[in-house]
Every structure is written in structure tokens, then in C-alpha cells.
Amino acid sequence: MQKKDRIIVHSDINHCYAQIEEMKYPGLRDVPMAVGGNEEERHGIILAKNDKAKAFHIRTGESLREALAKCPQLRILKPDYEEYMYYTERVKDIYREYTDKVESFGLDEAWIDLSESTALFGSGMSIARKIQNRVEHELGMTVSMGVSYNKIFAKIGSDMDKHKGLVEITRENYRERIWPLPVQDLFYVGRATKHKLAHYSIETIGQLAQLPQGWMKDRFGKVGELIWWFANGEDVSEVALSSHQEPVKSVGNAITAPKDIKSFEDAKIVYYVLAESVASRLREQGLRGNVISVTLRSTELTWFSRQRKLAQATNIASEIMPVVLSLLEENYDFSIPLRTIGVTLGGIEKDSGMTQLNLFVSEEERHRQRMLEETMDAIRDRFGFSKIQRCSLLKDRHLTDFNPKEDHVVHPVGFF
């Protein structure tokens, strides 16, 4: 007897942050508006925009400077993450009325497994329509949804119609609906993999799907085999229960500087702010990491990253910074100024308070540094981030006058 297909929905709250701001302030619906960083200081990027801003070809992810060049009258609002979390959780509360298998994917997206809900509530498409209508009528928000028999195709379906769309991808129609799409629409096909595939004239999902599985594995390794399965609709990953908490894989911070970073010294002082933020966030969660990654984006919009593994996991900024500076000095010459820089710690583990003995590092000194940084955390929590800083950061307040906890936090979790 053939196993019955699952019914998986992927939901995406349309223009989530912008939609919530318009709900709070209806007048914003009539003007081009975006949620981003600090308009006056050029901090940050566009996180979300409304339809009026979209008409000016403003793109999510571009810098505020680029967006304002396209639309000088653009209204830019600073993100209010607490508010966004509140409203997105209310949306997910509606999902949870139909199943306990609701897996968040960021604030505004989720997978919903309705396989065991149809006897009570109707077909997958029928339940998805009910959810869309309830979210709109009860909360004043719209969601796009994809319905399929696996998570990958459901996600692609929700991306096909971004304005309250509802798309069903089945075993009968996926070759017609999915295979003509560009190959980068698949999970794990990033820019580098896309270019490698293009070298072999593979540009669509269908072209990839019809290759021999062994050919993909030989040339692209495990990732090649995985995306081959995805292209052929063979994703079997489960939707996690609502109560299931995915382990944190990495913690980081990145910032688009208020002016171009033209020298090693400029980058150094910004990296101190970022490293302190990452270390503080790790300590808050009782975590530490042993893989340090630096990410750079030049003014020509080219990306560059390097990483190094530590002998001993850490959550102390004074231990993170020497590695960051070493990676920076060894790999970037500043012939082209930088616009965005970031630092991330991976290899995350629980901070048990125990460390391996290290002949080259004094445990007394480590303890002293940690106590110092925890004291700085306490002062900042009480009086504000800028109330205590390293003297070196005063060299250029224009570069370092930002609160990294309110800017672009990089905090990804595992997908599978």
C-alpha cells in the first residue's frame, strides 16, 4: 500500500515589518515607506518596504543610501522587533489552532504540517484559505501560502505569488510548476553553486533534476546530491513541533557603516563594537563558540569572508578580536573601501564554565577579562550601550556611535 503524501504548508507574512507598521499607522499606506536602519546616519539596509516603495524599485537588502537615491521622499522607520515578534506570534497562534506542528523559519515564515488535520478541518487548500482569511480579518495582515507534499516545494509555492497568494504544488504538477524556475530558487543553491551549475549550462531546476544523481554527487559532493533530491521533490524533512527549539548554530553581528571604511584602523574600531556585542549575546544565552568568521562587503558590493577555528571555545571579546584582526590583516588590503563588515561565532556549545588547560593562556587572566566584560554588560543594560566604551573607540565616534543590538543581528539556526 502506497504511503499517503503529507500536506505541508509554507506561510510567509507579506512585507511583514512594513505591514505591521501600516497596521499601526494607516497613513503610511499612502506614502512610500520602508523599515530599515538609521536614516540620518546611513546605518543599515532595507528590511521591508510597502507597495508604494516597491513602485520605485526599492529592494529588500539594499543600503538606505541606495534606496533614498531612488526615492528621496521615502519614509524610513527603525525596526521595532518586540512589536514584530508580538504580531507574528499572534499569526502563528492561528496556525497552531489547526496543528501542533508549526515550525518557525525566521519571524515571518513558518512551515505547517496539516497531514493529520484534514479529518477535522477539510483539505490542505481549504485549511490554508481559512487561515489566510482569519489572519486578514482578525489581525489585518496578509500571508502568502504554498501547499505541497514537502517543505521545499511548499516554500517555493509561497514565493510564487507574494500578495496573499495560495499555490498548490503536487506530484502531478511539480514538473510544470517547479522545473521551469531558475535553479537558485532551490534551497542551498547560492551564488557560488549557481555559477558552478551555469558552467555546465544548468540554469533551471528541471535541467538539474534530469541529470544523473551520481553526476551531481561527483561534481558537487553532498550538497549536489541534496539539491538533486530537492529538485525531484524528494525532501523528507519533518516539520518540527511548536515546542521544539532548534539549537543555535551561530551568533553574529554585521553593520553597514555610516561612512566608507577606508583603513585597517577604521575597521578595527568598528569590529571592537561588533565583537563585544557578539560576546555579550553569547554570554546571555550561556553559549560559547570556537569558529570565528569575518565578513566584508566592499563599496563595489563584492562579498568576502574568512574563518578560523580556535583551540578553545570562547565568549570573551578580547579573545575574539585578535583572530578577527589577524584574518582582516592577512586577507584585505583596503585598496577598495568597505561598506559592510560583520563577525560571527560558530561551533556553538553550552558554556559549562569549564575549559581545557592552556599552557599559553592564563586562566586567571581569562577570568579577569570575562568579569570586566560582564561588568560592562551590566552597565550597558542599565544605562545604555554608549555609557561605557573602550577609549580606542573614541577616535572616530561617527563610525562607532551605534548600538549593535539594535542593528543587524546575525543569528541563524539549523534548517534540517
From TrEMBL:
It is an enzyme of class 2 (transferase). The record marks 17 as: Substrate discrimination. CDD domains: PolY_Pol_IV_kappa (cd03586). One of its GO terms (molecular function) is DNA-directed DNA polymerase activity. Its EC number is 2.7.7.7. InterPro entries: DNA/RNA_pol_sf, DNA_pol_Y-fam_lit_finger_sf, DNA_pol_Y-fam_little_finger, DNA_polymerase-Y, DNApol_IV, IMS_HHH_1, Rev_trsase/Diguanyl_cyclase, UmuC. Residues 8-190 form the UmuC domain. GO terms for biological process: DNA repair; DNA-templated DNA replication; error-prone translesion synthesis; SOS response. SUPFAM superfamilies: DNA/RNA polymerases, Lesion bypass DNA polymerase (Y-family), little finger domain. Gene3D superfamilies: 3.30.70.270, 3.40.1170.60, 5' to 3' exonuclease, C-terminal subdomain (1.10.150.20), DNA polymerase, Y-family, little finger domain (3.30.1490.100). Keywords: Cytoplasm, DNA damage, DNA repair, DNA replication, DNA-binding, DNA-directed DNA polymerase, Magnesium, Metal-binding, Mutator protein, Nucleotidyltransferase, Transferase. It holds the Pfam family IMS_HHH_1. The active site is at 109. Its cofactor is Mg(2+). Binds 2 magnesium ions per subunit. Mg(2+) binds at residues 12, 108. It catalyses: DNA(n) + a 2'-deoxyribonucleoside 5'-triphosphate = DNA(n+1) + diphosphate. It is found in: Cytoplasm. GO terms for cellular component: cytosol. Belongs to the DNA polymerase type-Y family. Poorly processive, error-prone DNA polymerase involved in untargeted mutagenesis. Copies undamaged DNA at stalled replication forks, which arise in vivo from mismatched or misaligned primer ends. These misaligned primers can be extended by PolIV. Exhibits no 3'-5' exonuclease (proofreading) activity. May be involved in translesional synthesis, in conjunction with the beta clamp from PolIII. PANTHER family: DNA REPAIR POLYMERASE UMUC / TRANSFERASE FAMILY MEMBER, DNA REPAIR PROTEIN HOMOLOG YOBH. Monomer. This is DNA polymerase IV. It comes from Clostridium innocuum. The lineage of its organism: Bacteria, Bacillati, Bacillota, Clostridia, Eubacteriales.
